[in-house]
């Protein structure tokens, strides 16, 4: 495979008429890392990926690969490869010919391109399916073929547009592990678009949280989860409560909220009513109405909860350690 290179966006902007889809974003994707563009629908993440791929023109700004400016290059000359959300396999070609197709278009000799296609199918554990048509494969198998087809071009950066969204939950987790393993083995950069917080936290070395065409925050999964920079990030990444404390907004992880049925030690910071109890296996989530403090969530371990269960409608007393309340930007 080709050596991975840094990929950098410099004030990259995409407009559609008067609508700004991506608003002058700057970011460096470090060579050999797994990055996730994370955000809700319409935040600009897919437009960003398509600009990197060359499938959308850049309205202004630049895209750099290593020292080369690739902003105006056609997709085939960028050193990137795109894996589409629907996999986009040719239904009339068998698996082997699907993977070899781009090499055929480049005029690579049949024996050479088929040998290379076999090697890529071996990499994704699909070589025994080479004679099958896409319609004879499961969703997970089609995904592997699409991966092999993208990788045959030897990209420096593989671009993945919500590649797991069409899979059932069990297969999604399995393929998540395989994507990360493949990225480590290849040593190239993966840039993966998703709206799933869990997916981004599990996969990424670097998470880029987008909102309204801008980057709200980027960093390691642990940094993003433990220290969200803004209220948007805290709410979108999940697992946090946003509270007003002494005139400033703070994020407080749901699992750092202490819940007591009695306030014997008078250290409660808030009282709340239990609106719902949600059993999730390892944890139990309490949906709480804290009056003026709003709706909150407390995540208790199943052991803690079942040692002294709390009923819906009960009044509970809430407290937390000062160091667990993380201040948010205005």
Description:
With 330 residues, this protein is of the alpha+beta class. It folds into two domains: 7-226, P-loop containing nucleotide triphosphate hydrolases (Rossmann fold), CATH 3.40.50.300; 241-327, RNA polymerase II/Efflux pump adaptor protein, barrel-sandwich hybrid domain (OB fold (Dihydrolipoamide Acetyltransferase, E2P), Beta Barrel), CATH 2.40.50. It is built from nine helices and 18 strands. The strands form four sheets. It has a six-stranded mixed sheet with strand order 6-7-8-3-9-10, with helices on both faces. A five-stranded antiparallel sheet has the order 13-17-14-15-16. A four-stranded antiparallel sheet has the order 2-1-4-5, covered by helices on one side. A hairpin with a 3-residue loop joins strand 14 (270-279) and strand 15. It is elongated, with a radius of gyration of 24 Å. The chain starts with 6 loop residues before the first strand and ends with a strand. 37% of the residues are buried. The mean pLDDT is 92.
Give a summary of the structure in a few sentences.
The chain is α+β, with helices and mostly antiparallel strands. The chain has 9 helices and 18 strands. It has 2 domains: 220 residues, P-loop containing nucleotide triphosphate hydrolases (Rossmann fold); 87 residues, RNA polymerase II/Efflux pump adaptor protein, barrel-sandwich hybrid domain (OB fold (Dihydrolipoamide Acetyltransferase, E2P)), CATH 2.40.50.
